[in-house]
Specification:
Helices cover 28% and strands 30% of the residues. The chain has helices at 18-26, 46-60, 112-125, 142-150, and strands at residues 6-7, 11-15, 38-39, 70-75, 80-87, 96-103, 132-138, 154-159, 162-168.
Length: 169
């Protein structure tokens, strides 16, 4: 099944294809249906570079992204990738998916993370196999915690210096 990009007021969330992941890994332009997508000079971030090889392996075996992989966060007015968001894999046996998000530093604290997270949470909650969404961040990462809380995610656990949030259907 083909997963459509998600459009918000200021953003376009694009589920990355295998071809797009490969292009980012080797530093080429990102192909996208004839539209030129620019990359912010600071994207991909280190965290993104760490997960791209995993996404590459997963997407290699799929005809189309399932939506439970990595998505590009594109600022609509400039057609520029400013970050990424996605899941750590498909829903587990309980129907839970874990979500993560990251923006280039210059685009943080402008509401883009909240907007992107809201759109992807809403998409996930419409998937029949998803019962809940969780996210884990550092206890001292107050900006991330604020974004999660703005998206109706509630704290469910604290382990050492990490805090886990969850939102259910």
């Amino acid at each position: 099944m083909y997963v459509e990009p998600l459009t918000t007021e200021r953003l376009l969330l694009i589920p990355m294809t295998h071809e797009q992941v490969r292009s980012v890994i080797i530093g080429e332009e990102i192909p996208h249906h004839g539209i030129s997508i620019e990359k912010d000079p600071h994207w991909p971030r280190k965290d993104t570079l760490d997960i791209l090889p995993v996404a590459d392996q997963i997407l290699e075996s799929l005809e189309h992204p399932s939506g439970f992989e990595i998505w590009m966060i594109v600022k609509r007015d400039t057609q520029t990738v400013i970050g990424d968001i996605g899941f750590h894999g498909p829903p587990d046996e309980t129907g839970n998916v874990e979500i993560g998000c990251g923006l280039v530093e210059s685009k943080q604290s402008h509401g883009f993370g909240t907007e992107a997270l809201h759109a992807l949470i809403e998409w996930a909650l419409k998937q029949p196999e998803v019962n809940s969404i969780s996210a884990t961040c550092l206890l001292l990462n107050h900006p991330s915690r604020k974004i999660l809380e703005k998206n109706q995610m509630r704290e469910i656990a604290r382990i050492d210096d990490h805090i886990t949030y969850r939102r259910t259907k």
